[in-house]
């Protein structure tokens, strides 16, 4: 009897969930998430959150922002999130703010497209799909120069229809105190106004920008540019990568040992509970033919990614590579290690490519050349002396 | 006297070249550190050099918070978190505990390395008194390992006693009226500890940008016997603000410009190592500007700031009594001999050291001399009389 009642309950629950569908009921609180590269885009995300709240106030809604505690202190490149929550009245806003993070999101904005294949910012989440908490009918906005087909190879499917909006552009990366004022924030706001006028109308955010003395004509132009440039794709239920997310099983208090004792790693075993590959925007590709087996990359890697094979070569373990680029810098052989944009490796994933080289050196060579031709990156594009924030967005005049 | 005392130091040979570095990792992949973090690299190199018979104690800081994310750990060797200023006291406690358990026969009698690491905030600021206390306690073998990223990096870059002059931190943002907000010169911690703790047998400075040198120093420190100290400069991409791929390059530049010296003080004899040795022999130092202008934290510098920084570094090299190590010159005539350097620390138990027989460390000279007169408190016969006695209980 009891099992029968249990079997009957899910459809009822589903119906009620459908009844609460957010896009139909305009008066519910709305949440916007900004997923970004830790530290590099911290100020950008904070700036965006601020403007979402300011634009909401233009239509007498209230708003507030959350930076999830788990991501602070942030680390360079580690995926992080900030949220803006807006609501029609104080009560509903507080109801949403009382949570650690919003459970359902109306808009998820991805400020760097290499985050699309999942984010692992904190060990107890595991590698979360980028659209995990996207609401029925929600919008995923990505800054990318790639097509929707390419992005949907890494973005997991949903059991309902959702919208993928692509704002053409390259990710804007700054530093801890450095905000790169290149109009990315304005373009993203314009794109949100176009795709989701129920969050804020274009006129609302336009008047916010107009009233801000620090923002000028170029910011308004960027806002309009984002509004016009964004490309909207309706994604049907079931389209996208197979969702293989397994939440990390958290131990109960009975399983935990006295004190806070955690088992040490076995010799030669990497930490299986926290993989760092989602920090990566680019990855090293090794030319094993020109490798002189000097071991410099192996010893200088701060993430212990390089293995040593019997022959003395150093294949990379891509599950843990954070893509810092130190190996490419210390390698004494020209072009032996080349950094390539991580989204060029949608098919390969984090698989080890050393067996491929061993099997067929010619094929590996062709594969490597192709990847380098498509996605070679010389440097992280943020060390830009023209954009230091503390001298009014301009480099200090060193001569005076 | 050649019996090996309980809690004796492990004898570790120098590594000398990259190819001879042990392949085993005792600090593994899977830690939540920044891209290009050169504070996690010394953890790995230190564990690699120390080997499997090691206990690591970590004070609060980046390398505690980022490395032990919620029920997961990259450590292969035993590791324990300890309080922010407690590197010295926890190291002493662990070394004493091990020694006591071995003495009482409750644990296999074997050499075990005790390493306590701390950041520059936890070590050079808060934990300095405990480190100082540990370095005077010559009874116990331990290594205090200070990784210096020149700020409180774990809490988003606040000024520490190790932050260089003029650097931007959350506490010292340059403004329109005052360009330079960090007006303190960096504290010379290894020099201070060496000068003030004459019984400490090994004090060294290193950087993970020169990994083999750093690993050899860790091994020498662990082999020395007694408390030892090591200072490691780690470029920090987040706080120093540079592209993470330049981490190693910046560490090397710090040495080539003479801002950070590499040296080791072994039984009272100081030797510069690596590039610093070449600088001490007269090789031209690179201008500090080459190092400073590659970092965003010095982006507000004007020409006069570079000039001031250069002047201070020149002073370190030209006016200090020992360049970069002892921070004063002498005013009157003092007796500086030109003889061979004198090896000190005869009163520390010598059989624990690995460098017995090396030039300048002739053990034979002291063979006939018992250690006992210099160490009246150490009575190993006590063991026979009271097999279960704790030495500290005064029995």
Word description of this protein:
- The complex is a heterodimer of chains A (400) and B (395).
- By secondary structure, chain A is an alpha/beta fold.
- Chain A folds into two domains: 210 residues, Pyruvate-ferredoxin Oxidoreductase, domain 3 (3-Layer(aba) Sandwich), CATH 3.40.920.10; 94 residues, 2-Layer Sandwich (Alpha-Beta Plaits), CATH 3.30.70.20.
- Chain A is 28% helix and 15% strand.
- Chain A has eleven helices and nine strands.
- The longest helix of chain A has 18 residues.
- The N and C termini of chain A lie far apart (86 Å).
- With 395 residues, chain B is α/β, with parallel strands linked by helices.
- Chain B has one domain: 3-Layer(aba) Sandwich (Rossmann fold).
- In chain B, strands 2-1-3-4-6-5-7-8 form an eight-stranded mixed beta sheet, sandwiched between helices.
- The longest helix of chain B has 17 residues.
- Chain B is globular and about 65 Å long.
- Chains A and B meet through α8 and α9 of A and α1, α8 and α9 of B.
Question: What integer is the average pLDDT of chain A?
Answer: 85
- Beta percentage of chain A is 15-25%
Taking the alpha carbons of the first and last residues of chain B, their distance comes to: 24 Å
Overall shape of chain A: it is: globular
Main interface by residue count: A-B, 70 and 65 residues
Termini separation of chain A comes to 86 Å
What is the CATH superfamily label of the largest domain in chain A? Pyruvate-ferredoxin oxidoreductase, PFOR, domain III
Count of the separate structural domains of chain B: 1
- Which blocks of ≥5 consecutive residues of chain A have pLDDT under 50? 1-26, 383-400
CATH superfamily of chain B: Thiamin diphosphate (ThDP)-binding fold, Pyr/PP domains
Name the helicity range of chain B: 25-40%
